Amino acid sequence: MLKRFSDPDRLSRRRFLTATAATAATAGGVIAAPATADTLADVPPRGPGDDLGAYSPRSPYVQIARIPEAAPGQRNVDPSAAINSKSPLDKFVGTITPTDLHYERSHSGVPNLDPSKHRVLVHGMVKQPLVLTLEDLRAMPSISRIAFLECTGNGWENWKSAPDTVTVQNTHGLVSTHEWTGVPLSFLIDLVGVDRASTWMLAEGDDGAAVARSIPLTDEIIAEGILAYGQNGEPLRPAHGFPVRLFLPGFEGNLNIKWLRRLKFGDQPFMTRWETARYTQLRPDGKARQFQLKQDVNSVITAPSGMMRIKPGSNRITGLAWSGHGRITRVEVSADGGATWAVAALTGPVLPKAQARFQHDWVWDGRPTKIVSRSTDEQGNVQPDRASFIAQVGTNALFHYSAQQTWGIDEAGHVRNVLA
Amino acid sequence: MLKRFSDPDRLSRRRFLTATAATAATAGGVIAAPATADTLADVPPRGPGDDLGAYSPRSPYVQIARIPEAAPGQRNVDPSAAINSKSPLDKFVGTITPTDLHYERSHSGVPNLDPSKHRVLVHGMVKQPLVLTLEDLRAMPSISRIAFLECTGNGWENWKSAPDTVTVQNTHGLVSTHEWTGVPLSFLIDLVGVDRASTWMLAEGDDGAAVARSIPLTDEIIAEGILAYGQNGEPLRPAHGFPVRLFLPGFEGNLNIKWLRRLKFGDQPFMTRWETARYTQLRPDGKARQFQLKQDVNSVITAPSGMMRIKPGSNRITGLAWSGHGRITRVEVSADGGATWAVAALTGPVLPKAQARFQHDWVWDGRPTKIVSRSTDEQGNVQPDRASFIAQVGTNALFHYSAQQTWGIDEAGHVRNVLA
Questions:
Q1: Comparing A160 with A383, which gets the higher pLDDT?
Q2: Which residues in chain A are closer than 8 Å to B344, comparing Cβ atoms?
Q3: Are B233 and A57 in contact (CB under 8 A)?
Q4: Which ipTM value was assigned to this complex?
Q5: Among A286, A359, A308, A390, CA closest to A12
Q6: Structural domains in chain A?
C-alpha cells in the first residue's frame, strides 16, 4: 500500500468538510456543495471555441487593470513631479507580476525609443570608453534573475495619514517582481577597464527629465547589477526602460535608471539634483540624509485588504513579503491587531530579493478586529510596527516607509485601512 | 582596496576589447565603437513621453507574435485533429515565457467560459463527492510553482523528415515555462476522502472536444499535481484553461486538462479514446504503447537557429533545456556536429521541471559546420542524438520526440535545419 495520502488534519480537511456540509454563513468563503449525481446540472453546454491566435488575450471576465494616478488626457511632464501607475496587488496570485501590470513610475512620461538609434555611452575613469548599441549588449554574456523592483516612495500614504478607504493597490502598489535578463555590470566593468580607484558610477536616463543617479560601486552592486534588456522572457516594455535599463536588485527604484544612455565612472558621487534635492531623507532634527539606497524588509496582506468584505467563518489570509537584504525567511500574521502572532506558510518560490507569497488560514468569529503581517529576512531584519518606525525615523521624510500594514475589519466584515 | 573587480579573462574581456577595436567582420555580433567624446552624437533628442496607462504595452519596435497554424478565418474544430499556436523561442530571453506567448494547443478551439457558472465535479471512489465553484478553489490553500508545460507532439517535425527552412518555433515551439498557482491535488484528495484503493483519476475538460485522460495516482503526481487557476501572477488565460486546469509538472501536455470540469477517482484507467487511440505510441513491432506520460530530457539551441544568419568571429550560442525528470544539471554544446563538446553556462534560475537557459561563447571561423546541444538532468538522463533515438524507438510513433537538434551553417552564415 502506497503511503501516498497526506495527513487530513495538516491540510485542515475537517474544516473544509464541515464547510461543505454547512451554510455559506458558517463556511466563510468555502461554499462547496456535496455532489448529488454523477453529472453536472445547470452548467452551460459545450461547443466549438474561438480561433487560436498570435497572442493569448485575457478572459473578458477578468478585470485586472491598474489605476493610473494621472487620468486619461491629463499629462504630467513636470520633471520635478512624477506620475505612477500602481500594480493591483489584490488581484494577483503567486509571486511573478504580470508583465503589463508591473508598476509604472516616471518623471516625464514614457519615451518611445528606437532601439536601432539608441546608444549607451560608457566613460569616465576607464581604459577604453565605449559607445554600445543594443546589438552589442545582446551579443555579450547575459544572466537572468527573478527579483523585485520597488519605488522608494512605496507605502508613504500611511506614514503620516491616509483615508480608511485606500486599497492595497494605493498603499503598496509600487512594488513588482519579474525575471530580468541582461549583461552583468561586472562584465561591462571588465570590458571597459574601470580604474580600480573608481568608487562611484553615474547612470543617466534618456527620458525628458534626464533622471541621473550616482551609484556606489560596492561589492554587492558590482556582483548583482545588470544592464537589463529583458523582462519575463521578452524585451523590456517602454514604461520599464526599453531598450535597456539598469537593474540593481534590492536598491530603490529610481537608481535602476530606465532608458539608460550613459554610465560614467568616477571617484566620488556626482551630486545630481536627484540626490541633492529630491531623493534625500529629512530627519527629525531637520538635517537631510543622502544616499539611503537599500529597500528594507517589508510585507503586506493583499487579501483581505482595503475595501474588501469578508464573511464570518473560514477565511484565507494571503499577501506578499520582500526584502532588499536577501531572502524572506519568515512571515507572521496577527488576527488580533498584533497581540498574538502565527507563522504563515510560504507557498511559492522563495528567492533572494524577490517577493514571497504567504498564506494563513483563519476563522473569523464575526467580531471587529485588526489583521497585520510582519516579515523577517535572512539577515534577521524584522519589519517594525508603525509606531516603532515613526519613533525611530520621524515623519519628516518621504521615502523608505516599510512599517507593518494593519487592516481593520468591522462587525459587518468591511475591511478598512488603519493607521496602527 | 576592495577585491571587487572580477577576472577579465574569465569574462573574456580580451576578446571583446579586441572586438571593439576591430571591424564588424572580425568581431562578429560585437561592433562596440570606442567613444571619442564625453557626449553622444547622432542620437535622437529627448522629449516628453507618452502617458502612463492601465497596462504597459509593448514597444512598436518589438515584433514577437506567434505563428498560428490555422490562418485567420480558417477554423479547426474537428476533435480528432488539432490546432497549435507555437511559442517563438528564438525571440525569448531568460527562462519565463511571456504570458500571452505561451504555446496554445486545442482540439476544438478556445472556450470562453463564465467563471461564475463553471463547476468542477469531484466524484467516484470518494467519501464526499463535491461540486466546486471557482470561489471554493480560491478559498482553499494554494501553492505556486515555476515549471514547464510541453505538448507531447513537440519536435515531431524532425522525427521522420523536415524541410531545412523550419525555424526553432516550428521545431520546438510547443514548450513554455510559467509560474502556475492553484490548489494542491493532495489537498483535494484529502478533502473528498479518496478511497485508498483508488489508483487512477479521470480528468475531463469543458471544451467542445471533451478531452479526457486517465491519470495514475503515483506519489509524484499526488505530491506535485495542482488544480491551477493562475499563471504568471494573473488568472489563467482562456487558451490555457480559464478558469481552472490541471497542472502536472513534467507530464505530457494533454494530461494537464484545460477548462477542467470533472475529476473521477477509480481503481483502473478509464480508457477514453484519447488514450486508446490518439495518444498511443506505435512501436517498431507494430504494437502500440499506452500511457507513456513523462516528458524526457530535452534541449534546443534557440540562437543561432533556423533561418537566421551569422557572421564569422565572435558569436553567442544560447538555448533552453528542460526535463520532466527534474532539474537540468548540465548542457553541452558542440560546434563541430557532435565531434567535440563544451559545457555551456546556465545563466538563470535553474528550477526542477522548468526550462533552464544556457549560453556558450563561440568564435566561428567562417567554414561550414553544424551546431547542436545535449542536456543532462539530475537523474542522469542524457539527451540522445537523433540516430540513437530512432534506433531505439523507431519512426512509427508521433509523440515524445526528444532527440538532439542540429543546425547547419553554410559558408555564407545561413543557419538551416539538419536531420542529423
A1: A383
A2: none
A3: no
A4: 0.92
A5: A359
A6: 104-289 (3.90.420.10), 298-418 (2.60.40.650)
